[in-house]
Amino acid sequence: MNDSKTPIGVFDSGYGGLTILDKLVTDLPQYDFLYLGDNARSPYGSRSSNVIHKFTLQAVEYLFSKGCPLVILACNTSSARALRDIQQHYLPTSSDPTRRVLGVIRPTVEVLNKFTTTQHIGILATEGTVNSNSYKLEIEKLFPSFTVVQEACPMWVPLVENGEADSPGSDFFVRKHLDRILREDEAIDTILLACTHYPLLKDKIKRLLTPSINIISQGEIVAHSLQEYLVRHPEMEQRISQGGTVRYLTTEDSNKFEEKASLFLKRKIEAQSVAID
Q: What is the 3-state secondary structure of 1-62?
């Protein structure tokens, strides 16, 4: 990589962050991006908070070492379990405290009021994100009148990563969690897909639900939020190189990553294997 490049780093524990990256590249095509997937240690969702924090920090430090002045945690689990500590404790004492790490939870929550009429929100996420209560707590802070119901969907990530998102066989696992969350609160009119894998199930979810329920995925929201952030922080925007390039790094076999990534991006890419621990 050209040492003169200072790309926006995008990190995910696996492949799901590619759904965020895709929207970032679409909406901000002038910038350079560097994607890192910690696929060798994925999934993060069932790991302890200490392990998630350790792995996320290793990824952030790696992207910083590659010139990224700004890193987006395009991973709900990392955003829920590690972001706050990295922002409050790691960055201020790091070698360059002007670097920044942003997550996906806050910008997503900030716009939920635009979608709901009943103020009853359903959250579909990994076990780690649900157990962290990060979305529930953030919603309570911004919109205290909202009612929030969460549902962990442990089978959804494997379905997506094994190319079964569109298969009839996945209907059972998708319907199971939709039925469960709506039984708990029939007034839900907005469901947030709080895992970056889940947009690949969005069409199926829509078919299984009444059209009156809004299904929200995060890619467009995060991309719009980043655009606004760079306008508010011109000092950061000026640090990011503008060559319109995208590079992909993975901690697993690059050929396997390239094959799986095509499920998320609907196109072929080239990736490089790296070690970050």
A: CCCCCCCEEEEECCCCHHHHHHHHHHHCCCCCEEEEECHHHCCCCCCCHHHHHHHHHHHHHH
H/E segment holding residue 227:
helix 219-232
Over the stretch 199-234, which tens digit does the pLDDT of each residue have? 999 999 999 999 999 999 999 999 999 999 999 999
User: What is the helix, strand, coil percentage profile of the chain, to 5?
Assistant: 50, 15, 35
The dihedral through the CA atoms of 73, 75, 79, 81 has a sign that is: negative
- Tell me how far apart the alpha carbons of residues 40 and 5 are, in angstroms, rounded to a whole number: 26
Contact 129, 76 (CB under 8 A): yes
Question: What does the alpha-carbon distance between residue 225 and residue 219 come to, in Å, rounded to a whole number?
Answer: 10
Q: Please, which residues have CB within 8 angstroms of residue 167's CB and are 6 or more apart in sequence?
A: 159
What pLDDT, in 10s, does the model give residues 18-69? 999 999 999 999 999 999 999 999 888 778 889 999 999 999 999 999 999 9
So which residues are the catalytic ones? 75, 195
What is the number of residues in the chain?
A: 277
Q: How far apart are CA 116 and CA 114, in angstroms?
A: 6
Cis check: omega of the bond before 69, within 30 degrees of 0: no
Number of H-type helices and E-type strands within the chain: 13, 10
- What is the rounded distance in angstroms from the CA atom of residue 46 to the CA atom of residue 64? 26
**27, 6, 82, 57: which is closest to 276 by C-alpha?**
57
In degrees to the nearest 10, what's the CA dihedral of 147, 110, 198, 73? -130
Task: Report yes or no on whether pTM surpasses 0.90.
Answer: yes
